[in-house]
Amino acid sequence: MSFSGEVKEELSRHFTHLRHCQLAEFAAILTYCGEVHVYSEDEIGLELCSENPCVLRKYFTLLKKTFNINTDVLEQVMGPLSNPGQASVEISDTDQVEVILKAIRWMDVNGGRVTKGVTVNPMLLSSPEDRRAFLRGAYLAIGSMSDPEKGYHFEYVCTDAPKAEQICKVIEGFGIEAKIVLRKNHYVVYLKEGAAIVDLLNIMEAHVALMNFENLRIYKEMRNSVNRRVNCETANIAKTVSAANKQLEDIILVRDQYGFSNLPENLRQAAEVRLDYPDATLKELGEYMDPPVGKSGMNHRLRKLGEIAESLRSRE
Predict the structure, then answer these.
(1) Do residue 74 and residue 154 come from a single domain?
(2) pTM for the complete prediction?
(3) Residues 145 and 256 in one domain
(4) Does any domain span residue 83?
(5) 186 exposed, middle or buried (CB, 10 Å; 0-12, 13-18, 19+)?
(6) How many C-beta atoms surround the C-beta of residue 301 within 10 A?
(7) How many structural domains is the chain composed of?
(8) 188-215, pLDDT tens digit by residue?
């Protein structure tokens, strides 16, 4: 199962006993996956379509807990959920449908005409708990995220701009920055920062997924940090080796064409020490000198030898 699927699996089993939160989550699922069918003036049906069993599981759980639809009715409307591909589930009992539509404000309390909105009715999102539930339902219906081992990307794919704007506004209400992009005629609300995704998982109360995400994120950051250090050390070693080889070339040229006997004592000693210890660092070379000198002093002597070598090369 993908990481995104694990999040949905966890959210499908999360349940709150607050009815107003149940309604907010149920309304989100129906807004993105549901459809009302008006067969006649006195007959209406409610259909939910999804290829994800997690959405169906949460849908039926909320029907039971929120609207007290009994098991016999559920068995009748569920049908063969094991079939591959998209499942279509319909409630054809008009009385049950009216109860649901009135609760989520797709129908007025007097039983007037169905007025399904493009977005979830704002009256169902009056508290932070309602908005948390709304984001859970929306993620189950139209959300997805990438595997955190490969990258950080979290998104809701909406069919129209108002839906995307509502989700974006709710997310930003929790202090998280979300953006909207148009992709193949769909409006996508997305987050790409690891910390923001962690915060949103916490808001949706997907705590197991949050811990797994954080563990992967910490491991990934530690691995990247180690790689950066190794690369830096490798570059420094390569730089040191290259400098040492150049110093050896210069010293050998000075020895063969100029002679160590013609050098001042401090330069002669520095040249001999470098030849004796070709792999030593500047600090170590300075300690071999008599008397010992510091790193900068040793660097100064080797630079002088390099200038002499360049002068000899220019004469050639």
Answers:
(1) yes
(2) 0.70
(3) no
(4) yes
(5) middle
(6) 24
(7) 2
(8) 999 999 899 999 999 999 999 999 988 8
